[in-house]
Amino acid sequence: MGRSLLSHFSILTFSTPRFTSCGYLRKTRLIRKHDGLQVGRDFRCLCSNVAVSEPVNSETSSSSTVKKRIVSGVQPTGSIHLGNYLGAIKNWIRLQDTYETFFFIVDLHAITLPYDPQQLLRATRDTAAIYLACGVDPSKASVFVQSHVRAHVELMWLLSSATPIGWLNRMIQFKEKSRKAGDENVAVALLTYPVLMAADILLYQSDFVPVGEDQKQHLELTRELAERVNYLYGGRKWKKLGGRGGAIFKVPEPLIPPTGARIMSLTDGLSKMSKSAASDQSRINLLDSKDVIANKIKRCKTDAFPGLEFDNAERPECNNLLSIYQLVTGKTKQEVAEECRDMNWGTFKVVLTDALVDHLHPIQVRYEEIVSDSNYLDEVLAEGARKASDIADVTVNNVYQAMGFLRR
């Protein structure tokens, strides 16, 4: 799912217009800072100064004590690695203290390509245990398995009826994955899973969604879809059917972590660290032993330049390894730059290995404690699913009503 904050507003442009009850939206939006993270601002209508996304209820908009809501999740495919942790899960720990948070294991997304059912079952529990071992606190955040809240699938189908096929055909990740897998191995789910992702977000009337660089396009589709459904079925149309009226969905904004949103491969500094990479050497898994970590760092790709430095385009591996060291030690970029400037690779690799082992050891110990108590993990997931369902069911029932379905 760089770490520097924008000190001023930036303009982002998009190629597709967005519909509202009054026509088109501007094709630009602003990025502002919110609680130390970059936050995308709502699109606005050309014909008024009123934001497109209306408050879903008056209590949320009028009470300063109501926390903003965040949703995020990780697929239970392969092992959770350093990129998942530093790019997403580690940031969740801070967010859970400030926001109302929903962190789930997105198991429905894990079946878009051929998979092993036994592996999916094991990985789902392991991923939940790793969430908790990393510091996600079930007393602060709702932790659950996506498929345990059936409203995800229901809303996906309803949203599919409002999603133009052209919106899905332009998704970059679909093009890349389908090209690699070949036509015979490409299921319809690989094309339509961005609609499920939209359902995951919109179900909970999310205010913000933590995103990395490679997920921005999918969040834009979610925003477009929310606006489209609000236009097609919300407002007075919904009210005439006995509903509340107004917007059916909040239009979520991106929450961009200041650093570590994109950790790169140990074998190629230009490729993202990934579970799907063929070589396990390309990533540090959170449960890797000390010896395995040492071996991977010892063998990772470096360069022949003297000294170490950030932000040199000719040294992507150097920038990546320094960034990892910065994140696991909690040091500032300047502190790391000064500490490592005159180091050679042999010295730095030992320092980085020690930092990684020290940082991951408490997580590994806590993980073993959690998986040894299956009842505890089951209780956490059941309670999280119950809390999530309470909110999700309200949303999906509103959508059914607004779209003209006979109420049960």
How do the strands and helices of this protein lay out in sequence?
Elements: E1 11-13, E2 19-20, E3 23-24, E4 28-34, E5 37-40, H1 58-62, E6 69-74, H2 82-98, E7 100-105, H3 117-134, E8 141-145, H4 151-160, H5 165-169, H6 172-181, H7 188-202, E9 208-210, H8 216-233, H9 236-240, E10 253-256, H10 290-299, H11 316-329, H12 333-340, H13 345-371, H14 374-402
Kindly describe this structure.
It contains 14 helices and ten strands. It is α/β, with parallel strands linked by helices and 408 residues long. It has a five-stranded mixed beta sheet with strand order 1-4-5-10-9, covered by helices on one side. The chain has a three-stranded parallel beta sheet with strand order 6-7-8. β7, α3 and β8 form a beta-alpha-beta unit. The model is unreliable at 1-33 and 41-63 (pLDDT under 50).
Most strands sheet: 5 strands, mixed
Distance between the termini: 37 Å
% residues in beta strands: 5-15%
The helix content, as a percent range, equals 40-55%
Which class of secondary structure composition applies to the elements? alpha/beta
How many H/I helices? 14
Order the strands across the largest sheet as they lie in space. 1-4-5-10-9
User: How large, in whole angstroms, is the Cα Rg?
Assistant: 22 Å
Mean pLDDT: 84
How many DSSP-defined strands? 10
Q: What best-fitting shape do the alpha-carbon axes yield?
A: globular
Report low-confidence residues grouped into runs of 5 or more.
1-33, 41-63
Return the string of H and E elements. EEEEEHEHEHEHHHHEHHEHHHHH
